[in-house]
Amino acid sequence: MSNNAIPRDFVKNVLQNGVGRYVCQLKRITFRFCKSHGGSRHMRDFIENNLLEFTQKNPGVVCYLQPRRHRPPSVVAEFLNGRREVMLLSGKEVPEICKWVEHMRTRSGVQIVNMIQNNHTETPSTQGIWHPFMFRDSEMAATEFPSKKFSQIQVTGKTATDLVLEEQLKVSSSESSDSHIEGK
Length: 184
Known about the structure:
This is Large ribosomal subunit protein mL43. InterPro entries: Ribosomal_mL43, Ribosomal_mL43/mS25/NADH_DH, Thioredoxin-like_sf. Keywords: Mitochondrion, Ribonucleoprotein, Ribosomal protein. The protein is 31% helix and 17% strand. The protein is α/β, with parallel strands linked by helices and 184 residues long. It folds into two domains: 23-114, Glutaredoxin (3-Layer(aba) Sandwich); 138-177, no CATH class. The strands form two sheets. It has a four-stranded mixed β-sheet with strand order 3-2-4-5, with helices on one face. Strands 1-6 form a two-stranded parallel ribbon. A hairpin with a 4-residue loop joins β4 and β5. It is elongated.
């Protein structure tokens, strides 16, 4: 598939879905299957075991069953914006059919396009891509924690717990000496 086959569009600001609440964009879903053909076996299993649960969880989505003789199973999703998508499900097992139905339910119905920006550069970053482990020691990746080497502060050789305990002792001793001086 060439890059020209995918529709292109500019990045736009999209308004939030609904005013104050989420509005499901899927208005109708049609399950097409054959009652006797073996290729529709998983679709029939999905309809028998999972469709009732789907309809109970999504009362705003209308579900239709359309038996068709000697045709591969498919799902037709119709959205509030008027778009209609057909997905062939031959060879898909029940968990995969569940995932595709959920995918259709959560879609906005907007056509999938290759997003392009108004600005373009051949070198997006002169510094490279940063990630949280960029300047970390690679030895840490193979170390089991807690580790004596990585838990000690390199300058003093003491652990962070030792330093916190020392600070606490200093604070408590200064508080006791201050209260002792005020008592005289």
